[in-house]
Amino acid sequence: MSDPIKLIEDFFSQWSGKKPETIVPMPESGSYRRYFRISSEIGQFMGVFNMDNRENRAFIYLDRHLLQTGNHVPEVYAENLEKHVYLEQDLGDVTLLDYLVSIRKEPDSEDRIRDIYRHVIDAMPGLQVRAAQGLDYTICYPRAEFDVQSMMWDMNYFKYCLLKPLKIDFFEQDLEDDFQKIVTWLIQAGSNSFMFRDFQSRNIMLHDNELYFIDFQGGRRGPLQYDLASLLFEAKTRLADHIRQELLDYYLSVYKRTFPWFDPDKFLEYYYGIVYLRLMQAMGAYGFRGYIERKPLFLQSLPDAVRTLSWLMRNKPLPLDLVSLPGVFEQLIDLPKIKDYEIKHDTFTVTINSFAYKNGIPQDNTGNGGGFVFDCRALNNPGRYDEYKTLTGRDQAVVEFLESKADVMDFFMHTLHIVDHAVANYLDRGFTSLMVNYGCTGGQHRSVFMAERLSAYLKNKYAINLVITHHELGKNRTA
Protein backbone atom coordinates (compact mmCIF):
# COMPACT_ATOMS: atom_id res chain seq x y z
CA MET A 1 0.00 0.00 0.00
CA SER A 2 1.26 3.49 -0.87
CA ASP A 3 2.30 5.93 1.83
CA PRO A 4 -0.82 7.97 2.82
CA ILE A 5 1.25 11.13 3.33
CA LYS A 6 2.72 10.82 -0.15
CA LEU A 7 -0.74 10.22 -1.65
CA ILE A 8 -2.15 13.29 0.10
CA GLU A 9 0.85 15.43 -0.82
CA ASP A 10 0.53 14.52 -4.49
CA PHE A 11 -3.24 15.00 -4.55
CA PHE A 12 -3.08 18.36 -2.77
CA SER A 13 -0.38 19.59 -5.16
CA GLN A 14 -2.44 18.48 -8.15
CA TRP A 15 -5.63 20.10 -6.82
CA SER A 16 -4.18 23.41 -5.60
CA GLY A 17 -1.14 23.84 -7.82
CA LYS A 18 0.85 24.40 -4.63
CA LYS A 19 3.17 22.09 -2.75
CA PRO A 20 2.29 21.62 0.96
CA GLU A 21 4.65 23.22 3.42
CA THR A 22 3.91 20.57 6.08
CA ILE A 23 1.68 17.52 6.44
CA VAL A 24 1.18 16.52 10.08
CA PRO A 25 -0.63 13.29 11.10
CA MET A 26 -3.47 13.92 13.55
CA PRO A 27 -3.93 11.72 16.66
CA GLU A 28 -5.81 8.49 15.99
CA SER A 29 -9.40 8.29 17.17
CA GLY A 30 -12.02 5.56 17.23
CA SER A 31 -12.07 5.01 13.46
CA TYR A 32 -9.69 3.59 10.88
CA ARG A 33 -9.66 6.83 8.91
CA ARG A 34 -6.40 8.74 9.09
CA TYR A 35 -6.37 12.53 9.19
CA PHE A 36 -3.52 14.85 8.23
CA ARG A 37 -3.29 18.63 8.70
CA ILE A 38 -1.92 20.28 5.58
CA SER A 39 -0.29 23.70 5.85
CA SER A 40 0.39 25.65 2.68
CA GLU A 41 0.71 29.20 1.42
CA ILE A 42 -3.01 29.18 0.55
CA GLY A 43 -4.16 28.07 4.01
CA GLN A 44 -4.75 25.00 6.14
CA PHE A 45 -6.67 21.92 5.04
CA MET A 46 -7.41 18.42 6.26
CA GLY A 47 -6.33 15.44 4.19
CA VAL A 48 -8.15 12.17 4.82
CA PHE A 49 -7.02 8.67 3.91
CA ASN A 50 -9.46 5.78 4.22
CA MET A 51 -9.26 2.43 2.45
CA ASP A 52 -13.05 1.90 2.72
CA ASN A 53 -14.44 3.67 -0.34
CA ARG A 54 -18.04 2.79 0.46
CA GLU A 55 -17.65 4.78 3.65
CA ASN A 56 -15.85 7.56 1.75
CA ARG A 57 -18.67 7.85 -0.79
CA ALA A 58 -21.29 7.95 1.97
CA PHE A 59 -19.46 10.70 3.85
CA ILE A 60 -18.85 12.86 0.78
CA TYR A 61 -22.46 12.51 -0.40
CA LEU A 62 -23.89 13.28 3.06
CA ASP A 63 -21.47 16.19 3.50
CA ARG A 64 -22.60 17.88 0.32
CA HIS A 65 -26.26 17.19 1.02
CA LEU A 66 -25.99 18.59 4.56
CA LEU A 67 -24.27 21.71 3.22
CA GLN A 68 -27.00 22.19 0.62
CA THR A 69 -29.67 21.96 3.32
CA GLY A 70 -28.02 24.70 5.38
CA ASN A 71 -26.09 22.73 7.99
CA HIS A 72 -22.65 23.54 9.37
CA VAL A 73 -20.39 20.70 8.26
CA PRO A 74 -16.85 20.78 6.82
CA GLU A 75 -16.73 21.37 3.11
CA VAL A 76 -15.17 18.60 1.02
CA TYR A 77 -13.07 20.33 -1.63
CA ALA A 78 -11.93 17.42 -3.74
CA GLU A 79 -11.62 13.63 -3.72
CA ASN A 80 -9.66 10.90 -5.48
CA LEU A 81 -11.29 7.67 -4.40
CA GLU A 82 -9.02 5.57 -6.57
CA LYS A 83 -6.28 6.65 -4.17
CA HIS A 84 -8.66 6.61 -1.16
CA VAL A 85 -8.04 10.27 -0.31
CA TYR A 86 -10.03 13.48 -0.07
CA LEU A 87 -9.47 17.06 1.09
CA GLU A 88 -11.77 18.93 3.43
CA GLN A 89 -12.06 22.11 5.45
CA ASP A 90 -9.87 22.37 8.56
CA LEU A 91 -12.10 23.30 11.51
CA GLY A 92 -9.30 23.55 14.05
CA ASP A 93 -8.87 21.51 17.20
CA VAL A 94 -11.51 22.69 19.70
CA THR A 95 -14.28 20.15 20.21
CA LEU A 96 -17.31 20.52 22.43
CA LEU A 97 -15.60 18.11 24.85
CA ASP A 98 -12.51 20.34 24.98
CA TYR A 99 -14.73 23.32 25.73
CA LEU A 100 -16.53 21.48 28.53
CA VAL A 101 -13.24 20.43 30.13
CA SER A 102 -11.90 24.00 29.94
CA ILE A 103 -14.89 25.54 31.75
CA ARG A 104 -15.76 22.74 34.18
CA LYS A 105 -14.26 24.48 37.23
CA GLU A 106 -15.46 27.98 36.38
CA PRO A 107 -18.08 29.44 38.79
CA ASP A 108 -20.62 29.90 35.98
CA SER A 109 -19.90 26.57 34.30
CA GLU A 110 -23.44 25.20 34.61
CA ASP A 111 -24.93 28.20 32.82
CA ARG A 112 -22.32 27.99 30.08
CA ILE A 113 -22.90 24.25 29.66
CA ARG A 114 -26.64 24.82 29.31
CA ASP A 115 -26.03 27.59 26.81
CA ILE A 116 -23.69 25.64 24.52
CA TYR A 117 -25.93 22.55 24.56
CA ARG A 118 -28.98 24.67 23.73
CA HIS A 119 -27.10 25.95 20.69
CA VAL A 120 -26.41 22.35 19.68
CA ILE A 121 -30.10 21.47 20.11
CA ASP A 122 -31.07 24.53 18.07
CA ALA A 123 -29.10 23.04 15.16
CA MET A 124 -30.73 19.61 15.43
CA PRO A 125 -33.94 20.33 13.46
CA GLY A 126 -31.77 21.20 10.48
CA LEU A 127 -29.62 18.10 10.87
CA GLN A 128 -32.40 15.64 11.67
CA VAL A 129 -35.45 16.86 9.77
CA ARG A 130 -34.60 19.39 7.08
CA ALA A 131 -31.61 17.32 5.95
CA ALA A 132 -33.91 14.31 5.49
CA GLN A 133 -35.71 16.08 2.62
CA GLY A 134 -34.43 14.72 -0.68
CA LEU A 135 -31.73 12.59 0.92
CA ASP A 136 -30.90 9.38 -0.97
CA TYR A 137 -30.59 6.86 1.86
CA THR A 138 -29.40 4.10 -0.48
CA ILE A 139 -25.94 5.69 -0.40
CA CYS A 140 -25.75 5.52 3.42
CA TYR A 141 -23.19 3.25 5.07
CA PRO A 142 -23.35 0.50 6.21
CA ARG A 143 -27.16 0.47 5.98
CA ALA A 144 -29.84 2.78 4.64
CA GLU A 145 -31.85 2.65 7.86
CA PHE A 146 -31.42 2.04 11.55
CA ASP A 147 -33.58 -1.06 11.39
CA VAL A 148 -33.96 -4.35 13.26
CA GLN A 149 -30.64 -5.66 11.99
CA SER A 150 -28.81 -2.46 12.98
CA MET A 151 -30.20 -2.68 16.51
CA MET A 152 -29.20 -6.34 16.79
CA TRP A 153 -25.71 -5.50 15.57
CA ASP A 154 -25.37 -2.91 18.34
CA MET A 155 -26.52 -5.25 21.09
CA ASN A 156 -24.34 -8.08 19.85
CA TYR A 157 -21.43 -5.62 19.73
CA PHE A 158 -22.11 -5.08 23.44
CA LYS A 159 -22.31 -8.83 24.06
CA TYR A 160 -19.23 -9.98 22.17
CA CYS A 161 -16.89 -7.00 22.68
CA LEU A 162 -17.67 -6.14 26.30
CA LEU A 163 -19.53 -8.93 28.11
CA LYS A 164 -17.39 -11.75 26.71
CA PRO A 165 -13.98 -10.13 27.41
CA LEU A 166 -15.15 -9.25 30.93
CA LYS A 167 -16.42 -12.82 31.44
CA ILE A 168 -19.88 -11.61 32.45
CA ASP A 169 -22.11 -14.62 33.18
CA PHE A 170 -25.25 -15.07 31.02
CA PHE A 171 -27.22 -17.74 29.20
CA GLU A 172 -26.91 -16.98 25.50
CA GLN A 173 -30.45 -17.84 24.44
CA ASP A 174 -32.06 -15.85 27.25
CA LEU A 175 -29.99 -12.80 26.38
CA GLU A 176 -30.84 -13.13 22.68
CA ASP A 177 -34.53 -13.38 23.57
CA ASP A 178 -34.21 -10.16 25.59
CA PHE A 179 -32.55 -8.45 22.64
CA GLN A 180 -35.42 -9.51 20.40
CA LYS A 181 -37.98 -8.08 22.84
CA ILE A 182 -36.13 -4.76 22.94
CA VAL A 183 -35.91 -4.53 19.15
CA THR A 184 -39.58 -5.43 18.68
CA TRP A 185 -40.47 -2.61 21.04
CA LEU A 186 -38.07 0.09 19.84
CA ILE A 187 -38.73 -0.40 16.13
CA GLN A 188 -42.13 1.15 16.82
CA ALA A 189 -40.43 4.50 17.48
CA GLY A 190 -40.30 4.95 13.71
CA SER A 191 -37.49 6.20 11.49
CA ASN A 192 -38.49 9.30 9.58
CA SER A 193 -35.47 11.52 10.18
CA PHE A 194 -31.76 11.65 9.37
CA MET A 195 -29.91 9.95 12.21
CA PHE A 196 -26.40 11.38 12.60
CA ARG A 197 -25.51 8.14 14.48
CA ASP A 198 -22.46 9.33 16.47
CA PHE A 199 -23.78 12.65 17.73
CA GLN A 200 -21.35 13.23 20.58
CA SER A 201 -19.05 15.93 21.91
CA ARG A 202 -15.91 14.91 20.01
CA ASN A 203 -17.84 15.28 16.75
CA ILE A 204 -18.98 18.84 17.46
CA MET A 205 -16.38 21.50 16.67
CA LEU A 206 -16.19 25.13 17.79
CA HIS A 207 -14.84 27.15 14.87
CA ASP A 208 -15.10 30.89 14.17
CA ASN A 209 -17.74 31.26 16.91
CA GLU A 210 -19.95 28.65 15.24
CA LEU A 211 -20.76 25.00 15.88
CA TYR A 212 -19.80 22.51 13.18
CA PHE A 213 -20.62 18.82 12.98
CA ILE A 214 -18.24 16.12 11.74
CA ASP A 215 -17.94 12.32 11.42
CA PHE A 216 -21.44 11.54 10.14
CA GLN A 217 -20.33 8.87 7.64
CA GLY A 218 -22.49 6.33 9.51
CA GLY A 219 -25.61 8.49 9.20
CA ARG A 220 -28.85 6.93 7.94
CA ARG A 221 -32.59 7.07 8.32
CA GLY A 222 -33.51 6.55 11.97
CA PRO A 223 -35.54 7.62 15.02
CA LEU A 224 -35.31 11.19 16.31
CA GLN A 225 -34.52 9.95 19.82
CA TYR A 226 -31.18 8.36 18.94
CA ASP A 227 -29.09 11.50 18.40
CA LEU A 228 -30.40 13.22 21.51
CA ALA A 229 -29.65 10.07 23.53
CA SER A 230 -26.10 10.09 22.10
CA LEU A 231 -25.65 13.74 23.02
CA LEU A 232 -27.07 13.83 26.53
CA PHE A 233 -25.95 10.41 27.80
CA GLU A 234 -22.37 10.47 26.53
CA ALA A 235 -20.22 9.02 29.31
CA LYS A 236 -17.26 11.37 28.97
CA THR A 237 -19.20 14.63 29.33
CA ARG A 238 -20.61 13.69 32.76
CA LEU A 239 -23.65 15.94 32.44
CA ALA A 240 -25.50 16.38 35.72
CA ASP A 241 -28.90 14.66 35.91
CA HIS A 242 -30.81 17.91 36.27
CA ILE A 243 -29.03 19.45 33.27
CA ARG A 244 -29.86 16.39 31.15
CA GLN A 245 -33.51 16.79 32.11
CA GLU A 246 -33.50 20.52 31.36
CA LEU A 247 -31.95 19.90 27.95
CA LEU A 248 -34.45 17.14 27.17
CA ASP A 249 -37.26 19.58 28.00
CA TYR A 250 -35.63 22.22 25.82
CA TYR A 251 -35.38 19.78 22.89
CA LEU A 252 -39.07 18.90 23.23
CA SER A 253 -40.03 22.58 23.28
CA VAL A 254 -37.92 23.37 20.19
CA TYR A 255 -39.43 20.52 18.18
CA LYS A 256 -42.97 21.18 19.34
CA ARG A 257 -42.60 24.83 18.33
CA THR A 258 -40.93 24.02 15.00
CA PHE A 259 -42.88 21.02 13.72
CA PRO A 260 -46.68 20.77 14.18
CA TRP A 261 -46.55 17.00 13.71
CA PHE A 262 -44.13 16.45 16.63
CA ASP A 263 -45.64 14.47 19.52
CA PRO A 264 -43.63 14.83 22.77
CA ASP A 265 -45.45 11.93 24.45
CA LYS A 266 -44.68 9.56 21.57
CA PHE A 267 -41.05 10.74 21.63
CA LEU A 268 -40.72 10.06 25.37
CA GLU A 269 -42.40 6.65 25.09
CA TYR A 270 -39.28 5.25 23.42
CA TYR A 271 -36.62 7.76 24.41
CA TYR A 272 -35.10 5.99 27.42
CA GLY A 273 -35.23 2.63 25.66
CA ILE A 274 -33.08 4.15 22.93
CA VAL A 275 -30.80 5.61 25.61
CA TYR A 276 -30.20 2.03 26.82
CA LEU A 277 -29.57 0.89 23.25
CA ARG A 278 -27.11 3.70 22.57
CA LEU A 279 -25.33 3.08 25.86
CA MET A 280 -24.91 -0.61 25.02
CA GLN A 281 -23.51 0.32 21.61
CA ALA A 282 -21.06 2.79 23.16
CA MET A 283 -19.92 0.29 25.80
CA GLY A 284 -19.43 -2.30 23.07
CA ALA A 285 -17.24 0.21 21.25
CA TYR A 286 -15.20 0.85 24.41
CA GLY A 287 -14.73 -2.89 24.82
CA PHE A 288 -13.75 -3.44 21.19
CA ARG A 289 -11.21 -0.62 21.15
CA GLY A 290 -9.92 -1.31 24.65
CA TYR A 291 -9.95 -5.09 25.13
CA ILE A 292 -9.72 -6.33 21.56
CA GLU A 293 -7.66 -3.62 19.82
CA ARG A 294 -5.79 -2.95 23.08
CA LYS A 295 -6.26 0.84 23.05
CA PRO A 296 -6.77 1.50 26.77
CA LEU A 297 -7.72 5.16 26.30
CA PHE A 298 -11.24 3.97 25.43
CA LEU A 299 -11.56 2.04 28.69
CA GLN A 300 -11.45 5.32 30.64
CA SER A 301 -15.08 5.87 29.62
CA LEU A 302 -16.31 2.58 31.10
CA PRO A 303 -16.67 3.77 34.74
CA ASP A 304 -18.79 6.74 33.64
CA ALA A 305 -20.86 4.53 31.33
CA VAL A 306 -21.49 2.08 34.16
CA ARG A 307 -22.57 4.92 36.46
CA THR A 308 -24.98 6.07 33.77
CA LEU A 309 -26.29 2.54 33.45
CA SER A 310 -26.85 2.39 37.22
CA TRP A 311 -28.79 5.68 37.09
CA LEU A 312 -30.96 4.37 34.27
CA MET A 313 -31.80 1.16 36.11
CA ARG A 314 -32.81 3.09 39.23
CA ASN A 315 -34.74 5.87 37.51
CA LYS A 316 -35.82 4.64 34.08
CA PRO A 317 -36.05 0.82 34.11
CA LEU A 318 -36.91 -0.85 30.83
CA PRO A 319 -40.70 -1.47 30.68
CA LEU A 320 -40.27 -5.03 29.40
CA ASP A 321 -40.31 -8.52 30.92
CA LEU A 322 -36.64 -9.34 30.47
CA VAL A 323 -35.03 -12.54 31.76
CA SER A 324 -31.27 -12.04 31.42
CA LEU A 325 -30.30 -8.44 30.64
CA PRO A 326 -31.09 -6.86 34.05
CA GLY A 327 -28.80 -9.39 35.73
CA VAL A 328 -26.09 -8.69 33.16
CA PHE A 329 -26.37 -4.98 33.91
CA GLU A 330 -26.12 -5.64 37.66
CA GLN A 331 -22.95 -7.67 37.14
CA LEU A 332 -21.41 -4.83 35.16
CA ILE A 333 -22.32 -2.27 37.79
CA ASP A 334 -20.76 -4.41 40.56
CA LEU A 335 -17.63 -5.45 38.64
CA PRO A 336 -14.51 -4.23 40.50
CA LYS A 337 -12.40 -4.37 37.34
CA ILE A 338 -14.35 -1.51 35.78
CA LYS A 339 -13.24 0.80 38.58
CA ASP A 340 -9.58 0.13 37.67
CA TYR A 341 -9.99 2.43 34.68
CA GLU A 342 -11.08 5.40 36.76
CA ILE A 343 -8.76 8.33 36.15
CA LYS A 344 -8.22 10.74 39.04
CA HIS A 345 -7.75 14.02 37.18
CA ASP A 346 -7.00 16.23 40.18
CA THR A 347 -3.79 14.49 41.27
CA PHE A 348 -0.56 13.54 39.60
CA THR A 349 -0.09 9.78 39.68
CA VAL A 350 3.12 7.91 38.94
CA THR A 351 2.52 4.23 38.25
CA ILE A 352 5.66 2.13 38.74
CA ASN A 353 5.72 -1.46 37.50
CA SER A 354 8.11 -4.35 37.78
CA PHE A 355 7.53 -7.07 35.20
CA ALA A 356 9.01 -10.05 33.34
CA TYR A 357 9.68 -9.49 29.66
CA LYS A 358 8.34 -12.94 28.79
CA ASN A 359 4.89 -11.74 29.91
CA GLY A 360 5.01 -8.42 28.08
CA ILE A 361 5.27 -4.76 29.05
CA PRO A 362 2.37 -3.64 31.29
CA GLN A 363 -0.49 -1.72 29.67
CA ASP A 364 -1.02 1.96 30.36
CA ASN A 365 -4.70 2.36 31.34
CA THR A 366 -4.52 6.19 31.28
CA GLY A 367 -4.63 6.25 27.49
CA ASN A 368 -1.27 8.04 27.19
CA GLY A 369 0.33 5.13 25.36
CA GLY A 370 2.81 4.12 28.06
CA GLY A 371 5.84 5.80 29.60
CA PHE A 372 9.41 4.83 30.42
CA VAL A 373 10.54 1.21 30.01
CA PHE A 374 13.92 0.30 31.50
CA ASP A 375 15.54 -3.06 30.73
CA CYS A 376 17.39 -4.50 33.76
CA ARG A 377 18.41 -7.77 32.11
CA ALA A 378 22.00 -6.67 31.52
CA LEU A 379 22.55 -6.38 35.28
CA ASN A 380 23.84 -9.12 37.56
CA ASN A 381 20.91 -11.43 38.37
CA PRO A 382 20.53 -12.58 42.00
CA GLY A 383 18.18 -15.28 40.76
CA ARG A 384 21.18 -17.22 39.45
CA TYR A 385 22.38 -17.82 43.02
CA ASP A 386 20.71 -20.50 45.12
CA GLU A 387 20.53 -18.36 48.27
CA TYR A 388 18.42 -15.71 46.49
CA LYS A 389 16.20 -17.83 44.24
CA THR A 390 13.22 -17.88 46.59
CA LEU A 391 13.62 -14.24 47.61
CA THR A 392 12.56 -11.03 45.82
CA GLY A 393 13.93 -7.55 45.29
CA ARG A 394 12.08 -6.46 48.43
CA ASP A 395 14.06 -8.80 50.70
CA GLN A 396 17.03 -7.26 52.54
CA ALA A 397 19.53 -9.91 51.38
CA VAL A 398 18.74 -9.20 47.73
CA VAL A 399 18.79 -5.43 48.33
CA GLU A 400 22.26 -5.67 49.87
CA PHE A 401 23.49 -7.88 47.02
CA LEU A 402 22.31 -5.42 44.35
CA GLU A 403 23.51 -2.34 46.24
CA SER A 404 27.01 -3.84 46.29
CA LYS A 405 27.13 -3.89 42.47
CA ALA A 406 28.41 -0.64 40.94
CA ASP A 407 26.74 -1.27 37.58
CA VAL A 408 23.37 -1.77 39.29
CA MET A 409 23.59 1.52 41.18
CA ASP A 410 24.84 3.39 38.08
CA PHE A 411 21.88 2.03 36.14
CA PHE A 412 19.46 3.08 38.86
CA MET A 413 20.89 6.61 39.08
CA HIS A 414 20.63 7.06 35.30
CA THR A 415 16.95 6.05 35.34
CA LEU A 416 16.33 8.16 38.44
CA HIS A 417 17.63 11.34 36.78
CA ILE A 418 15.44 10.73 33.73
CA VAL A 419 12.29 10.09 35.76
CA ASP A 420 12.99 12.87 38.26
CA HIS A 421 13.25 15.41 35.44
CA ALA A 422 10.04 14.14 33.85
CA VAL A 423 8.05 14.25 37.10
CA ALA A 424 9.12 17.85 37.82
CA ASN A 425 8.28 18.87 34.27
CA TYR A 426 4.91 17.10 34.20
CA LEU A 427 3.89 18.60 37.53
CA ASP A 428 4.74 22.07 36.25
CA ARG A 429 2.69 21.49 33.08
CA GLY A 430 -0.36 20.14 34.90
CA PHE A 431 -0.13 16.56 33.65
CA THR A 432 -1.99 13.88 35.58
CA SER A 433 -0.03 10.67 35.08
CA LEU A 434 3.27 9.01 34.24
CA MET A 435 4.13 5.32 33.94
CA VAL A 436 7.56 3.86 34.70
CA ASN A 437 8.35 0.20 33.96
CA TYR A 438 11.34 -1.84 35.08
CA GLY A 439 11.65 -5.22 33.39
CA CYS A 440 13.92 -8.19 33.92
CA THR A 441 13.95 -11.90 33.14
CA GLY A 442 11.63 -13.16 35.86
CA GLY A 443 10.25 -9.93 37.31
CA GLN A 444 11.33 -11.03 40.78
CA HIS A 445 14.64 -9.48 41.75
CA ARG A 446 16.26 -6.65 39.74
CA SER A 447 13.08 -4.99 38.46
CA VAL A 448 11.42 -5.20 41.89
CA PHE A 449 14.47 -3.63 43.53
CA MET A 450 14.46 -0.75 41.02
CA ALA A 451 10.73 -0.10 41.36
CA GLU A 452 10.87 -0.02 45.16
CA ARG A 453 13.90 2.26 45.22
CA LEU A 454 12.40 4.73 42.73
CA SER A 455 9.15 4.76 44.69
CA ALA A 456 10.93 5.59 47.92
CA TYR A 457 12.80 8.47 46.28
CA LEU A 458 9.70 10.00 44.65
CA LYS A 459 7.61 9.61 47.81
CA ASN A 460 10.22 11.50 49.81
CA LYS A 461 10.56 14.34 47.28
CA TYR A 462 7.09 14.94 45.81
CA ALA A 463 3.51 15.21 47.06
CA ILE A 464 2.11 12.85 44.43
CA ASN A 465 0.08 9.66 44.22
CA LEU A 466 2.25 6.57 43.74
CA VAL A 467 0.98 3.17 42.61
CA ILE A 468 3.52 0.34 42.63
CA THR A 469 2.68 -2.96 40.99
CA HIS A 470 4.95 -6.02 41.00
CA HIS A 471 3.25 -8.00 38.26
CA GLU A 472 5.06 -11.28 38.83
CA LEU A 473 4.63 -11.09 42.61
CA GLY A 474 0.91 -10.27 42.41
CA LYS A 475 1.33 -7.25 44.67
CA ASN A 476 -0.20 -3.82 44.13
CA ARG A 477 0.02 -1.00 46.62
CA THR A 478 -0.37 2.75 46.85
CA ALA A 479 2.54 4.59 48.43
- The structural domain count equals 3
The chain-level mean pLDDT equals 92
Give the CATH architecture of the largest domain: Alpha-Beta Complex
- β-sheet strand percentage: 15-25%
Q: Please identify which CATH superfamily of the largest domain we are dealing with.
A: Aminoglycoside phosphotransferase (APH), C-terminal lobe
Structural class: alpha+beta
Shape: globular
Alpha-carbon distance between the two ends: 49 Å
CATH hierarchy class name of the largest domain: Alpha Beta
At the fold tier of CATH, the topology name of the largest domain is Aminoglycoside 3'-phosphotransferase, Chain: A, domain 2
Kindly provide the radius of gyration, computed on alpha-carbon positions and rounded to a whole number of angstroms: 26 Å
State the low-pLDDT regions, or none: none
The H-and-E topology, N to C, reads as HEEEHEEHHHHEEEEHHHHHHEEHHEHEE
Q: Any descriptors?
A:
479 residues, alpha+beta, Phosphorylase Kinase, domain 1, Aminoglycoside 3'-phosphotransferase, Chain: A, domain 2
